[in-house]
Amino acid sequence: MSELNQKAVAKYQNNFLKEVEERVEDGEWVSMCMQCGVCAGSCPLGPHWEHSPQKIFRMIMAGKRDEVLTSDSVWMCTSCYSCIVRCPRKLPITHIMHGIAHYAHRLDVAPKGQPTRELARVFWNNLIKTGRVNELKFSLAVYFKDGFSQGIKNLMSMQGIALGLVKAKRLNPMEIIGGHKCKDVGGIQKMLAKAKEIEDRRQGYSS
Amino acid sequence: MAEMKTAAYICSGCGLGDKLDVPQLAKIAQKEGKMALVREHDFLCNAEGVQMIRDDIEKEAVTHICIAACSRRAKTEAFNFPTVAMTRANLREGVIWVVSEGGDHDEVRQEMADDYVRMGCAELKKAKMPEGNPNHTHLKNLMVVGGGISGMTAAFEAAETGYEVILVEKQAQLGGWADKLWKRVPFKAPYAEPQDTGVAELAAKVSSHPLIKVYLNTTVAETSGAPGRFAIKLAQESGAITEVSAGAIVQATGFTTYDINKLPELGGGLENVVDHAGLEVLAKAANGGAIKRADGREIKSVVFLQCAGQRDDTGRHLPYCSGHCCATSIKQAMYFKDANPEVNTVVVYDDLRVPGMGEDFYRSAQHKGVIFAKGNASKVETAGNGCRVNYRDLILDADSILEADLVVLATGQVPSSGVNVVEWDKLTKEADGGSVEAKQQKSELKNISILNLTYRQGPDVPKLKYGFADSHFICFPYETQRTGIYTAGPVRRPMDILQATEDATGAALKAIQAAENASLGRAAHPRAGDLSYPIVRLEGCTQCKRCTVECPFGAIDEDEKRFPVFNEQRCRRCGTCMGACPVRVISFENYSVDTVGNQIKSIEIPDEFSEKPRILVLACENDAYPALDMAGLSRIVYSAFVRIIPVRCLGSVNTIWITDALNSGYDGVMMMGCKKGDEYQCHFVKGSELAGYRMSKIGDTLTGMGLEPERVSTFEVAITDNAKVAGFINDYVAQLVEMGPSPMKGFN
Predict the structure, then answer these.
(1) pLDDT in tens, B118-156
(2) Which residue in B366, B374, B395 is closest to A32 by CB distance?
(3) Residue A35 and residue B374: Cβ atoms within 8 Å?
């Protein structure tokens, strides 16, 4: 169990609703859910989730901390906003789903190897290096995230598209060396560090 | 009144003149109807036409008029002649609007109109102008039974309207249940916080009102009489009896809470399980501070279980929803949150229903951190220092557990409506048969009676459903089946304070109307203002008791020789007694066995070779007749072979009409009335049911006459059934055509 997670458990004990209200973005809305189920019925991915937003909210209120934070469901949201549009209580459901996913990720209790989570992680690490996304390195990192031989297989299957992109000058093979970056890489990284510090303080991770 | 002089007025407006041979109608009125005066007019309901009628009444001394124009339900303001007897022949809605267009149908259309004119004249000759009940009453004050929110409101509103009120309360102080509450559910914007009950202020206003006399520690020992002349004996705690009188009565006896000891599975009887009333006691004791249990321990967690012993389909508990409990639990959860936001409050509900502005109140509770869990509690048991609630979480579909210092059961309201008169009636029959046990049970039952009515039909007002005293929740709120006695508040149906306040105001106004109408010799709702009243020829009476038993409103008592005693002020003028009477001695001035019988006999019956059947339709004037009018208004075509007579209620249909009609050669009789049974829509409660019962017995008579039983049929028609009713008629006519003409034709 990560240190942050241990601290959170110690701080909130059994009051998971309070934890969500204080630490999850838009979490203060959860208690306003009236369990009508319109979100669950509106979600285009509904049948493929284990827990609909309605269930997630009920689980939070019932104090089911582990089940919520390790749920695969919150990562499945595609941000189509159907639920937000239809919620009669005007809950920002999409934002809450992302907020929970983000919180679970910060505590490092989110499901390991969850594809959305892995893709986001690779994307983020790629972005903060130079302040710009290096598409070539990003693609390679995604191909090779499951090991070398799987990476080669992914490369072979995608080579036609890659060559096409090169021909059309949409992909520069030279990006493999360094690649383009923003003017002040150091400044970007300082800014991101500062943002994280503010978030940690505000959400209570640091103290 | 002076000598009878009749007149018929035939209108040719609204297309009547184009489609009908009006001069021929006039001739029929004169020759066959024997009207002394017959006039045609091309726009009878305009000022000139109405003036013509007025002039005739004044100068020609006309006393009886037949208006052959539109339906009796149309143009009632123009055709309002209170000094003469009047009948209406319905040529517009009843003929030209419902008979098929075109020359092919001219013949049947004219025949139909001819018959309606004959019927109008025939009815007129037997009708008298209603003069009003000569037994006028003078009392216009009210007695209100029950000094809770409903009773106090009814008393106060009536007194503010200028009527004297006697307010009777069993307890030593006014206030009732509401007085026991710490706060009430909000009734003013923003509907977010519990509000003061306001009971003390209302009680002070009532106690000091110059028109209200309050009797505390008092019950009603006896009520006799009728609207406008109720004589009441009040029993004080000391045993003293005070005699008072009142013009009308409002019964606002409220409710008791469902006994939680009947709910052992939900912890009823356990130390830390209370109902709503029990929690109010704790909240009042806390006086805004932290709420403590009976053992003095501060409550840190509380669970509310909704629908406890309510909405039960197993037959063990209350089958209905009491309506107020969701909002009440929300309010009580707020007691805890307002005193200490850290208290864990969970409301376990199946369906959360907060009518009115309750949705704002619900949201406010969510903001305060009250948790709402959709689930069904199965078991509550003692655990540690508190309780453990086992419930099925209906969202997560999983068995779950909640631990709490206190469990609150949202139990329902049980009406305090006194004796069940159906049971009473049964016991009376057994006791009359000599059963000592029944006699004993009867005297025990008498102890719980509220009004102690001296009516032959039992000591309290009849109950509608689940023990609530009412006669129809939707169509006639407050009206009981005892005229001049109105119920208000939770004795009538489950409700909260705000609804009870509105209810009490409505009932007070109804009671005032009843007393006023009685003082003028007029009927109360639904024939409000009707001046006719039942007149009985006692010398012909055979003391069969059918009228006294069948009267839905308990208007008829029996004297010591078992003759009926009519209390006209209690009567609603439905005519059920007239329909019941086997010797036909009961009648109304403008509605009697003769007025209808004469109409039935007046029409011309074509012979059996004409292929023109005649079907008599007896249509309830409350629902079926308006539906037929609406069919006309919508130009829905139906068979021209029917002849429709409106009746006050199917209960007023005397079987002699049926046999007369069939003997005269009608091919069939359709009876159209309101829905009967548990979900009845009959304006007079039992009329359509009684009619159905009587008609079920007529089969033998028909067979004896050599007729098929299908020649008499009953139909349920609601006021909205304008399209359906035409279908009923056409199908029935087709059925009769197939059956062939009545063998009775040509014998009269």
Answers:
(1) 999 999 999 999 988 888 888 999 999 999 999 999 999
(2) B366
(3) yes
Residue B399: closest CA among chain A residues belongs to which residue? A62
CATH 3.50.50.60-classified regions of chain B: 142-254+461-519, 258-412
In chain A, the domains with their CATH numbers are 3-111 (1.10.1060), 115-197 (no CATH)
Q: For tokens 């919150």, what's the residue?
A: A74
CATH topology of domain B1-129: Rossmann fold (3.40.50)
Q: Could you give the C-alpha distances from B540 to A73, B134, B585, in angstroms and in order? A: 86, 22, 6
Domain B258-412 CATH assignment equals 3.50.50.60 = yes
- Taking an 8 Å cut-off on Cβ atoms, the answer to whether B373 and A62 are in contact is yes
| Count of residues in chain A | 207
Chain B nearest CA to A29, separation (Å): 9
What's the CA gap between B485 and B481, in Å, rounded? 8
Which of A31, A34, A59 lies at the smallest CB-CB distance from B369? A31
Q: Tell whether omega for the bond before B526 is within 30 degrees of 0, i.e. cis.
A: yes
Question: For residue B436, is pLDDT > 70?
Answer: yes
State how far residue B189 is from chain A, nearest Cα, in angstroms: 19
CATH 3.40.50.960 boundaries in chain B: 1-129
Distance of alpha carbon B220 from alpha carbon B206, whole angstroms? 20
- What's the token pair of residue B29? 């009125």
In a mutagenesis test of the B interface, which of A14, A20, A22, A34 is the best target, namely the one with the most B β-carbons within 10 Å?
A34
Is the pTM higher than 0.90? The answer reads no
* pLDDT digit string, tens, across residues B189-239: 999 999 999 999 999 999 999 999 999 999 999 999 999 999 999 999 888
For residues B659 and B641, give the distance between their C-alpha atoms in angstroms, rounded to a whole number: 19
Q: Which residues contact B174 (CB under 8 A, 6 or more apart)?
A: B147, B148, B152, B167, B199, B203, B206, B207, B214, B216
CA distance B702 to B711: 8
